[in-house]
Amino acid sequence: MRVTKLDFPVMSSWMENNGRRLDCTPYLSGAFEAKVILKKLPPESLQPLHAVTKGGLNGIFHAGRERRQYVDDPAYGVPFLGSTDILAADLSSLSLLSKKQVAANPNFAIQEGWTLITRSGTIGRMVYVRSDMAGMACTEHAMRVAPDVNKILPGYLYAYLSSKFGVPLVISGTYGSIIQSIEPQHLADLPVPRLDKDIEEKAHNLVNKAASNRVLASKLLAEASEDVIAHFKLKIPTPRYKYSSPSITSASSFSMLERIDAYYYAKWNEEAYQEFSKLPPAQLVTIGDITEDLYIPNIFKRFYAEDPKFGYAYLTGADIYVLAPTSNRYLSKKLPDIDKLVLRDGMILVQDSGQIGGLIGRPVAVGRYLSGFACTNNMVRIVPHSKLDQGYIFAVLNTEYGIRLLTREATGSSIPHLDEKRIRKIQIPWTDNETRKLLGRKVLQAIELRDEACDLENEARAIVDNAIRDGGA
Fold this sequence. Notes:
By secondary structure, the protein is α+β, with helices and mostly antiparallel strands. The chain is built from 13 helices and 19 strands. The strands form six sheets. A four-stranded antiparallel β-sheet has the order 2-9-6-7. The two termini are 33 Å apart. InterPro entries: Restrct_endonuc_typeI_TRD_sf (IPR044946), Type-I_RS_S_subunit (IPR052021). One of its GO terms (molecular function) is endonuclease activity.
């Protein structure tokens, strides 16, 4: 772990004030530096976290450990957020936790305006609970911070906790050597600065606007895919859980000349293939024929630059799917074919490896926020001819049929992979320019809304950070 500042050494008195802990985390995470700056604020302006949460310490909690009971049918289940899911931009394919289990333990359910904090493994990742997340079940590995709205604005509390001051203080409560964790009592006395009323309101409004943007973006993306299904008069995809288990199907020997792996011929994949194939030939094109480029970068050795000026912020395949990807690693600009790794506005990315049923085959549209990041070679790059086509192609690939057709192309038993040649040959529905523009416009609007949401949250945190450094004014 790197020391935040060499001229800011750890003092023996800090250990005395921190329960005589001898592990590095409380001292080198920036927490003490944050405390020193916070102590410069008027003492009456600092409140412990439990003083601004609903029910005091009871407003900082998690669901508790118990065996989970999953179901397949939405009629009997509640969407369940794992510790990685809470940060995901797309919540449309979550597992379902039994409604009976959620009813028996109400702490599973989350409410709008809460702050969720990962409390084990990677500590301190946070998300603000949006209206589309309210009522979902959430893992015990995420701490709930439920603000008392009569005492503090939820958006401001989130902006502070996720700021340069809040995150180090949260992480400093971490304990454990192999599997690190935090408990509610470790956060109860975390100092919360009460700033000028206008500052708190501005931060709150920015966070709420970001949340509203993301809710609307998700709605627009779902509608765009539904519009594609409706325009081409395709039947609504049969949910996977309605297929018999185990899946048993048959295929002719002629159709198996190129592929003999069973998943390729699964009934849900065959349904997707048949629905697209029944369209007139004039309405079908291969992905390779209607894109400027389509490629998977070569495997490369990762060389990182110490100075951001000499590198591109680097994202993994999992990073791409979160609400606001960030990175403190910078891939060296001197790497061969580095341009093939850098993302550009207008691209579509598809996870090219992983377990079937996971992220593999799921598309992501690159907007201005992701543009300029370097990204792992384990993502298919689809480069449409224009932004108009980006919106339309993404709308098609993001349908349940599109995802199934991409996923069925995966090959390999241990870690399945996609092959760019086979992706090029996938046939998708195609239509005239004006119709494509109409069907793709919601996607482009959603991309901009998500990009703006990242900007709004960053602005909220910057306002809070600056106000604290300026003494609370």
